[in-house]
Request: fold
Amino acid sequence: MKKQKWSLLSTAFTILVLANSSFAQTAKKKNIPVKKSISTVASAADILAGKALIQKSDCVACHKTDVKLVGPGFLQVAKKYPATEDNYTSLAYKIISGGTGVWGQVPMSAHSALSQLDAKKMVKYILSLK
Ligand code: HEC
Reply:
């Protein structure tokens, strides 16, 4: 009888611990998207700086905002890629190193003098257009 009581108690305890840890996990999971969206949202200052950088650079020789020129229109690019940290990073890398094959066979020239930080601001502006 005593033994049974103990096992009941320990079962209840286990359930409590499990329930508690799964609650903690859910809370953690809920926190992740919140954190992500904070780091993902481009600040207005970055977007404005990116716009100015693009206007000063050679981008406009090949890109217009709304229609395809040599490269895709920036609006088309914005529609293709959600504004996430990952896309800021990978597109910034693509602008710096140049490349081809995503929008056709015409290559984008490399911009090796550009810093990753400035290239990222340009991308933040582009992906804010949609
Ligand atoms: C010589 C012409 C040219 C110049 C200059 C140029 N681009 Fe491009 N850009 C292209 C072409 C062509 C593509 C499509 C490449 C492909 O299909 O992978 C492209 C693609 C892109 C993309 C989308 C990349 C992808 O993988 O989807 C972004 C973003 C971009 N350009 C931004 C810029 C910015 C910012 C500048 C100025 C620093 C710039 N481009 C200058 C021709 C150019």
Observations:
- The pocket of heme C is lined by residues 54, 57-59, 61-63, 70-72, 77, 91, 94-95, 99-104, 106-109, 111, 122-123, 126 (CB under 6 Å).
- Confidence is low (pLDDT under 50) at residues 13-24, 34-38.
- Residues 88 and 120 are 6 Å apart (CA to CA).
- DSSP finds six helices and no strands in the chain.
